[in-house]
Design a protein that fits this description.
The protein has seven helices and no strands. The model has no long low-confidence stretch (mean pLDDT about 85).
Length: about 250
């Protein structure tokens, strides 16, 4: 890896993190995983991401650009994600992360397939940009960020693919989406590194916070509802375990 140019390394790590969705999708599509286990994995992944955006993204944004840039970016990212998610939800992508029978088929809701695909892309891009941004400081990728995003992407792909299969989506559709997401994740990470390397610390901080705001909104809108819906008795405890795992990883990585 050290022989590759930095932009290629950024793209590679973004692809690796995005490919976790493809791995999860393969499990969700071909293995009959009980919904309660899927919900538990979703809860764990949610805790991992909450920890990562708290101790990696927001903390790094604050150190780079101070409170103003971080706050504006955080709220802005949440607002943009919420608006885009609202539009997609009304086009059939509301339950794109659900593993049960909530996802509509194309016959039930024409155009929902495209909306679900766009929604999956919307969910994955902020995380991937963060990987590229993490390389701007010292030229080394944040292993904590990559690990946290990878760990959270597996249950995302698993749950969503299980729901897609129940909605009678074809294997070509399911794996086409998640392979495209993996490629798009690599491109987004590459863009995060190349586009922002000449920008001021305030801009980089705000962009990092935008991604954090979008990620937290995504968790509350899509992942946590799936976790609570099935594993509500233990969802909180499992989420805390995921948070602690990522927190420990951040301290070991530091």
């Amino acid at each position: 890896m050290h022989g590759l140019p930095m932009w290629a390394q950024a793209g590679f790590w973004g692809f690796v993190a995005g490919a976790a969705c493809l791995l999860g999708a393969a499990i969700g599509y071909w293995v009959n995983v009980p919904q309660r286990i899927i919900a538990g994995i979703m809860a764990f992944g949610s805790g991992v991401l909450i920890s990562a955006l708290s101790f990696e993204l927001m903390d790094e944004a604050y150190k780079r650009g101070g409170f103003d840039a971080t706050a504006y970016g955080f709220l802005g990212g949440a607002a943009v994600y919420t608006a885009a998610n609202w539009v997609l939800a009304h086009k059939g992508a509301k339950h794109r992360k659900r593993s049960g029978g909530q996802q509509p088929s194309e016959d039930e809701d024409s155009g929902s397939g495209l909306a679900i695909a766009v929604g999956a892309l919307l969910d994955g891009i902020p995380e991937s940009i963060v990987i590229g941004l993490s390389m701007l400081g010292g030229g080394v990728v944040s292993t904590v960020a990559v690990a946290a995003i990878f760990l959270s992407n597996v249950p995302e792909g698993l749950s969503s693919a299980a729901g897609m299969k129940k909605a009678q989506r074809s294997a070509g559709y399911v794996f086409g989406i998640w392979f495209a997401i993996a490629v798009a994740s690599g491109i987004a990470s590459l863009v995060g590194y190349t586009v922002f390397q000449d920008y001021s610390a305030d801009v980089v901080a705000a962009t990092t916070a935008v991604a954090a705001g979008a990620i937290l909104s995504m968790l509350v809108d899509t992942m946590i509802p799936e976790a609570f819906d099935v594993a509500h008795d233990f969802a909180g405890l499992i989420t805390v375990a995921g948070f602690l795992a990522a927190f420990a990883l951040s301290k070991l990585g530091g």
